[in-house]
Amino acid sequence: MRGVTLLLVSLLAVAPVVESKQTPVAVKKLSPSVEQAVRTKEVSLVRVNVTGQPYDYFRPWQKKASFSKRALGAVLPNQRVLVTADLVANQNYVELERAESGDKSAADVVVVDYEANLALLEPADKDFLKGLQPLDLALDTVVGDRLSAWQLESTGALVITEGIVSTVGMTRYPADVADFLTYRLSIPMQYRDNSYTVPLVKNNKLAALLLRFDPRTQVLDAIPAPIIAHFLKDAAGPSYRGFPSLGINFFPTRDPELRKLAGDTGKQGGVYVSSVEPGQPAAKAGLQAGDMIEAVGDNQIDENGNYVDPLYGKIGFGNLLTAKAFSGDTATIHVRREGKPVTLTVKLAHRSEDDYVIPPYNIDDPPAYYVLGGLIFQELSRQYLKEWGSNWQKDAPQDFVYLDRFQTELFPEAKQRVVILSQVLPANATIGYEDVSYLVVKKVNGKEIHSLGDLAEAVKSPVDGFHVIETVDDPKQLELDATEVTAEAPELQKNYSLPALQRLR
Questions:
Q1: Is the Cβ–Cβ distance between 14 and 23 less than 8 Å?
Q2: Element (H, E) at 38
Q3: What angle do CA 129, 130, 136 make, to 5 degrees?
Q4: Residue range 136-145, pLDDT digits in tens
Q5: If residue 493 lies in a helix (H) or strand (E), which one and from where to where?
Q6: Which of 55, 183, 304, 421 is the most exposed place for a label (fewest CB within 10 A)?
Q7: What is the mean pLDDT of residues 38-67?
Q8: Taking the model in full, what pTM does it have?
């Protein structure tokens, strides 16, 4: 039986729209407000131009080549612009551009949520968006509705392509930490130079933002208005808290033997809690592995983990705790424990990326590292694993992929990081170790290592004149002459153009 993970937090790359050879289907009749906007060239969109540089996790002391991205932003009330978070990840400069005039203004990233893949921008020029009608949200989209993808030609002309919502369900967003509400559309959309972020509109209201698009199947996934509304409401508060987390893993209970194991003798329904993450809201509320979750509030949960939503019908109950709840809210969870009903009150909270043993993302901040005599130590993160490309789960070192996938079970206390020896720079101190790489570090100089800070502290106390590094796998132990390491450090830094031999969190 396959487990289903429920880490309800609100990551990574959104696939930009790529070329499709089919002709887009234009809306034949526009609403009067859209017709007026087209005539006056005051559509509620602005171009967003972004330049930036991602960090290089293979060479953590430097950045990769710079990039530029061009997208569309949806104009919202309060002189703000909505885009996807992936657009502004690792940005150095963000600029807004009026489609009709070409006027430009620098912009600040006011709030960004990489888990929900949303970001809010604000122009430096407070009058820059004057004359553009802000878009309201369309919160009532259902299967069968027609949505219009709004794009701009290089001339500023509006291009509208229609698509039909085929599915409303829960899917993983790019940060891959939780399932979020998602619209799926069939739409024959084509590439344009601003297609990185595409608004989807219903009755001249913002219904969704492009999440990903497959030009072969012409299937588009979109971030829906309820998720956007949640993000905006949270962003309007004194501090942004993020989407809430429950912190459990669960199985569906279609298997009658599993239901029997859980002591269930009632009607079919509910899901089996396989594990509860320490320190997370579910654990604090007293939820236990082996419990059967039968309802959240007044919403009954079926054996597949779905509830009946008044708008969407059957959908994963994670939607109750993301789109419909906020960090700081309380949720009532009804469980069956050893055949007996138990009611628990959970105070929901967001789980920060820093709360993971192996963080699911680390964007905008430089990676930590420590160079010791040519040995390069880092903290394992999914951002590091993604350096192997989109197929990283197969191409990255499998020991590391395993640690990332099962970190909850392997590190139940979740109060540490995994320190790895990622590579070796050839130097006098590392002769014989040139081919050593991708090792998990256990101890340095006899001290347990649970972070790079631990390692930095441990190297202050060599053992009989040597730094002794113990690893999980072969060669199990490496030794460096401490005096030689210290003496050659300046030359090592110079030879490899290292700005510093360490960067700690």
A1: no
A2: helix 32-40
A3: 70
A4: 999 999 999 9
A5: helix 482-495
A6: 304
A7: 87
A8: 0.88
